[in-house]
Amino acid sequence: MITGVFLYGYVSGTITSSLSNLDSRRVSYRQKVEAIKQYMLDQNMDKTMQKRVTGWYEYTWERNKGIDVINVFNDLPTNFRAEVALSLNEDILDKVPMFKDTSLGFRRMLSIAMRINFFTADTFVVHRGEIGKEMFFVVQGRVDMLNNGGEAMHSMVEGSFFGTFP
């Protein structure tokens, strides 16, 4: 009976702690979004752009629940961080022919350099004529290439890539 009481206390404490951590991230997120909304109002930003900005923050919250996915492993030693990054990005790199037969060290360092970007619908990733400095990998969703009239000419889906590699 005593073991049962301790087990019940442990489980309920763990659940409470998890909910508390999520709630603190949510409060921090809400404070940040409110500060951004206030700044956009102070700057008289266009209402459509305000809606797009807040939509992006809502989307990223739904995707990662307040975890800083870009810096989450920065505390790890470089070699270990490279291994972790490669384990997370290996499937993406395998889909790009120019990276298929590269060395393990190169793939690890390339994986560390990769950054996750979230784009919402109706967001332009790049515009025609811009100087390319990045390569993009479509991991989820769809990216449309538009003609000058704004009509989709070509769609890229999961596994596609575009852009330049410096």
Give the tally of structural domains: 3
Intertermini distance: 65 Å
Strand order of the largest sheet: 1-4
Q: Which bin fits the share of residues in helices?
A: 40-55%
Number of strands: 4
Please tell me how large the radius of gyration is.
Answer: 21 Å
| Coarse structural class | mainly alpha
Q: Output the number of helix runs.
A: 4
Tertiary shape? flat
Query: What integer is the average pLDDT?
Result: 76
Q: From N to C, what is the helix and strand string?
A: HHHHEEEE
Strand content: 5-15%
Main location: membrane
Subcellular location: Membrane
Protein name: Cyclic nucleotide-binding domain-containing protein
Domain Cyclic nucleotide-binding: 98-166
In summary, what is this structure?
With 166 residues, this protein is mainly alpha-helical.
Verbal overview:
This protein is mainly alpha-helical. Helices cover 52% and strands 10% of the residues. It has four helices and four strands, in the order H-H-H-H-E-E-E-E. The protein has helices spanning 2-42, 47-64, 78-94, 104-113; strands at 135-137, 142-146, 152-157, 161-163. The strands form two sheets. It has a two-stranded antiparallel sheet. Strands 2-3 form a two-stranded antiparallel sheet. Helix 1 (2-42) packs antiparallel against helix 2 (47-64) and helix 3 (78-94) packs across helix 4 (104-113). The chain is flat. The N and C termini lie far apart (65 Å).
Layout: helices, strands, pairs:
Layout: H1 2-42, H2 47-64, H3 78-94, H4 104-113, E1 135-137, E2 142-146, E3 152-157, E4 161-163
Antiparallel strand pairs: 1-4, 2-3
Helix pairs in contact: 1-2, 3-4
Keywords: Ion channel, Ion transport, Ligand-gated ion channel, Membrane, Transmembrane, Transmembrane helix, Transport
InterPro entries: CNG_cation_channel, cNMP-bd_CS, cNMP-bd_dom, cNMP-bd_dom_sf, RmlC-like_jellyroll
GO molecular function: intracellularly cyclic nucleotide-activated monoatomic cation channel activity; protein-containing complex binding; voltage-gated potassium channel activity
